[in-house]
Amino acid sequence: MKNRLAQFVCLAGLLTCAATALAAPEASKIARRWQLDIEFHDLERISVTLPGDKSPKAFWFVLYTVTNNTGEDVDFYPTFDLVTSTLQVVPAGEGVSPTVYDVLKDRYSRLHPFFRDPIRVHGKLLQGEDHARTSVAVFRDFDPKADSVTVYIAGLSGEFAKAANPMFDPKKPESADNPRFFPLRKTLAVTYDIPGDEVTRAASTPIRRLREWIMR
Fold first, then answer.
1. What Rg value do the Cα atoms of the chain yield, rounded?
2. What b/e string do you get for 63-81 counting C-beta neighbours within 10 Å, with b at 16 or more?
3. Which of 5, 7, 94, 142 has the most C-beta neighbours closer than 10 Å?
């Protein structure tokens, strides 16, 4: 079941990329709808020894603060996905122990006294800096062969679009397995080079190469 789910996720990602390439919807440079402001620390690696384990495990995280300066209260339900150069898809929170969040909260509690666990970030985001929310997106360790990764952050904008599905079969009914269009939303994409190899990665710092808004 897990293998089938992983295959489905990868296929969906590839189809979305194909649809995007054909239809070429571009994210607007000037926000057409509400768009939240985000400040974040670049991708970092942390090793945490989980309860019952004898050796530490590696995780990756992005610490961020979101502020609503849109002029209206908005619903904030962010998603973070990490995609490697080897096409591995790692959703934030998947396979991440609560212990990791506790460690990060202890690390950043002085700098961000109102730090929230990811689940407590969700909901109505009121306007202004006084209502800004700080949290963290955490990813399990990824393919050691990957030499770059892109973190996709969705939920920061109310801008949507759709792209034609190049694999749509008009001879079959339109369905979830045979969609005519792919829904796309304005998403922040941040790409990092991962220097070193599997052995030296622990001592390496990801290098930000690109930050851009895309429709995904």
1. 19
2. bbbbbbebeeebebebebb
3. 142
